[in-house]
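Researcher: Please translate sequence to structure tokens.
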Amino acid sequence: MIKLTSPYITLGQLLKLTDWIASGGEAKVAVKRLKIKINGESEDRRGRKIYPGDTVLIEDKSYSIGQ
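Model: Translation complete:
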């Protein structure tokens, strides 16, 4: 589980936090290249806000978001 210290995290920030990318600048390309689903829906916007209670699937790795 990933615990947030703020009300939400963006998809780009989550990719960096989980080591899918090395820098925030890579997020734009990564969201197009990786298979990402948030709560079962495909997502390709790096600015998508992710809130506690959401489940994010990146490729075959699942992340639960908590607070």
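Researcher: Any highlights?
Model: Helices lie at 11-17, 27-33.
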